[in-house]
C-alpha cells in the first residue's frame, strides 16, 4: 500500500480578514485557501492592497483571521493563546523584513544570537551557531560591526542569518529586497534559495519584484483579497 502524501507545512482554509475603518469594513482577505509544501520556495505577488501582507501576518501568527483556519506545522493556530503563539513563532518561524529590523545597539553577531537567547540556548552554543550562520551568508568578517556600520545589503544578510539561526521550518519574508538595489537584492534572494536547497527550509516571500519571482518554485498571485493564480 503506498504511503500517504506528506501533509503541507502550511494550510490556509477559507481565511477571511476584515478591518473596521470608520463606518465601513475593509475586507482584506475574502476567503483564501492555500497549501504550501515543506522544502518549497514560494513567492507571493500582487498589487498594493491585494492582501499579501495580511496573509503573511496570518501565516506568521502575528494576527488572527476573522474566520477560517490557519494550520502551520500541524498546529491550528486558533487553538493557541498569546503566550503559546509567541513560543510557537520562536520555535517554528523566522522573519525577514524590508527594513531589516535589526537592533541598532547590537553587533551583527549579537543580532543573530538574539533569537537563540530568547529560546534559552546556552551562550557558548548560541555564539557558535550565530558565527556559523554569519559565515553561511558571507559575513563572518563583519560579526563585530553594528548595523550603522554595514551596507543595506549586509544588514539584510544579517537579517537572513537571524531568521535562519533557529533552524525554523518556515521563513516569512515581506518585500525583503524593496530597499536594496537590484544587484544586491538578487544576491539576497540567491542566498535564501540556496538555504532552501541546503537546509530544506521553506520560504514564503511577498514581492513586487519580477526578478525575485524568477527564483520561485511556485508563484501565488493575489488581487482584492483573493488568490487569482497559484
Can you describe what's shown?
The chain has 230 residues and is of the alpha/beta class. The longest helix is centred in the C-terminal third of the chain and has 18 residues, at 182-199. The model has no long low-confidence stretch (mean pLDDT 93). Helix content is 34%, strand content 27%. It has a single domain, classed as 3-Layer(aba) Sandwich (Rossmann fold). It has seven helices and ten strands. Helix 3 (108-118) packs across helix 4, helix 4 crosses helix 5 and helix 5 (152-164) runs parallel beside helix 6. The strands form two sheets. It has a six-stranded mixed sheet.
Protein topology:
Elements: E1 10-21, E2 24-36, E3 41-45, H1 52-59, E4 67-72, E5 75-76, H2 82-92, E6 93-97, H3 108-118, H4 123-136, H5 152-164, E7 170-174, H6 182-199, E8 202-206, H7 210-213, E9 218-223, E10 226-229
Parallel strand pairs: 3-8, 3-9, 6-7, 7-8
Antiparallel strand pairs: 1-2, 1-4, 4-5, 9-10
Helix pairs in contact: 3-4, 3-5, 4-5, 5-6
Amino acid at each position: 500500500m503506498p504511503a500517504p502524501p506528506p501533509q503541507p507545512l502550511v494550510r490556509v482554509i477559507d481565511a477571511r480578514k476584515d478591518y473596521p475603518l470608520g463606518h465601513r469594513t475593509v475586507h482584506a482577505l475574502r476567503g483564501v485557501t492555500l497549501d504550501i509544501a515543506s522544502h518549497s520556495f514560494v513567492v507571493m505577488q500582487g498589487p498594493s492592497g491585494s492582501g499579501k501582507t495580511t496573509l503573511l501576518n496570518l501565516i506568521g501568527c502575528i494576527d488572527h483571521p476573522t474566520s477560517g483556519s490557519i494550520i502551520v506545522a500541524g498546529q491550528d493556530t486558533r487553538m493557541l493563546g498569546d503566550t503559546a503563539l509567541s513560543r510557537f513563532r520562536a520555535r517554528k518561524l523566522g522573519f525577514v523584513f524590508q527594513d531589516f529590523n535589526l537592533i541598532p545597539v547590537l553587533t551583527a553577531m549579537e543580532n543573530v544570537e538574539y533569537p537563540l537567547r530568547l529560546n534559552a540556548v546556552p551562550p557558548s552554543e548560541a555564539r557558535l551557531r550565530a558565527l556559523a550562520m554569519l559565515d553561511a551568508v558571507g559575513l563572518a568578517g563583519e560579526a563585530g560591526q553594528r548595523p550603522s556600520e554595514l551596507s543595506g545589503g549586509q544588514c539584510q544578510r544579517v537579517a537572513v542569518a537571524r531568521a535562519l539561526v533557529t533552524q525554523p521550518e518556515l521563513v516569512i519574508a515581506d518585500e525583503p529586497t524593496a530597499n536594496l538595489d537590484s544587484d544586491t537584492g538578487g544576491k539576497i534572494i540567491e542566498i535564501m534559495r540556496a538555504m532552501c536547497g541546503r537546509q530544506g527550509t521553506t520560504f514564503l516571500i511577498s514581492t513586487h519584484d519580477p526578478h525575485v519571482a524568477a527564483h520561485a518554485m511556485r508563484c501565488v498571485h493575489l488581487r482584492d483579497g483573493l488568490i487569482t493564480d497559484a
